[in-house]
């Protein structure tokens, strides 16, 4: 395994205003949770009681809710890695069309993302990597700006019609997902409250921030700044040296491997590297629901 290192480019300091926004938002969220947890107002207690009495499973042990949330976000991560990334962007996997529809619908519910937007941004990233046209390069923007503001950078490119036309070729423009993108998370919010009661709200928050945190922050940010390199690619891509991150991201943390061979459905190349996405795709291929290119 290559030596773990940090890229030599500057990490890019956040402006004072950007730091103020980050700490202000995080502080407000933390203060709100502490306040409402310790001193819940009467109106909030009434809402909680009303929601819980109508929920399907409002009295489960807390670890049930934690496990369900982890399963939800892992399925979302797998759909991003398998459907958006390996299938739609690079064509290294093809799925049975109903499996594809199910993944796309799941992603709409839990991320509000339309397929063509994600694909176009990622294709532009590969085409213009580490240049001033790269949508989210830590080399150009600074690693902490990409880590904390990666979602903003993504949206800036994803809603550029020129980017969609140039880099979204061959991807269906599903007008419903494009026009009603935010309806998906609203449906997820209502379902969470109906199924789990008021605890469904923090579950929903975790589900909503998971992909922006890991995709926009960890992979796009740290994945081009810190880690080891198996291949001398013409960019600053890195493999993140954490098996936990590899599991949580379904293998996406092997970022340098992917940049070296973008069209391979398998991201792990050396002993010790974990790519759950590859195992999932092989399982789907075994039952006739997917087809992988040769690695």
Automatic annotation (TrEMBL):
Cleaved signal peptide residues: none
MF-aspect GO terms: oxidoreductase activity, acting on paired donors, with oxidation of a pair of donors resulting in the reduction of molecular oxygen to two molecules of water
Keywords assigned: Fatty acid metabolism, Lipid metabolism, Membrane, Oxidoreductase, Transmembrane, Transmembrane helix
InterPro entries: Acyl-CoA_DS (IPR015876)
Biological process, per Gene Ontology: fatty acid metabolic process
Membrane topology (UniProt): Multi-pass membrane protein
Keyword Metal-binding in annotation: no
Family: Belongs to the fatty acid desaturase type 2 family.
Protein name as catalogued: Fatty acid desaturase domain-containing protein
Species of the source: Candidatus Yanofskybacteria bacterium RIFCSPHIGHO2_01_FULL_41_21
């Amino acid at each position: 395994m290559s030596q773990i290192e940090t890229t030599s480019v500057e990490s890019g300091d956040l402006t004072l205003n950007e730091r103020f926004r980050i700490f202000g938002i995080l502080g407000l969220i933390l203060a709100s949770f502490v306040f409402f947890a310790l001193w819940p107002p009467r109106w909030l207690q009434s809402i909680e009681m009303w929601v819980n009495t109508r929920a399907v499973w409002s009295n489960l042990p807390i670890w049930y809710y934690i496990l369900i949330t982890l399963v939800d976000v892992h399925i979302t991560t797998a759909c991003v890695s398998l459907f958006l990334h390996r299938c739609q962007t690079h064509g290294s996997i093809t799925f049975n069309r109903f499996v594809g529809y199910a993944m796309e619908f799941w992603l709409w519910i839990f991320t509000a993302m339309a397929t063509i937007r994600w694909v176009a941004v990622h294709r532009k990233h590969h085409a213009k990597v580490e240049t001033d046209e790269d949508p989210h390069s830590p080399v150009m923007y600074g690693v902490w700006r990409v880590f904390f503001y990666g979602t903003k950078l993504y949206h800036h490119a994803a809603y550029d019609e020129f980017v969609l036309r140039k880099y979204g070729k061959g991807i269906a423009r599903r007008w419903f997902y494009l026009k009603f993108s935010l309806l998906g998370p609203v449906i997820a919010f209502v379902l969470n409250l109906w199924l789990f009661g008021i605890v469904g709200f923090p579950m929903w928050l975790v589900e909503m921030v998971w992909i922006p945190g890991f995709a926009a922050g960890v992979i796009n940010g740290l994945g081009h700044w810190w880690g080891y390199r198996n291949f001398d690619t013409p960019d600053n891509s890195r493999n993140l040296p954490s098996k936990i991150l590899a599991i949580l991201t379904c293998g996406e943390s092997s970022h340098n491997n992917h940049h070296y061979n973008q069209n391979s459905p398998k991201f792990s190349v050396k002993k010790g590297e974990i790519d759950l996405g590859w195992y999932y795709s092989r399982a789907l291929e075994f039952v006739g629901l997917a087809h992988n290119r040769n690695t």
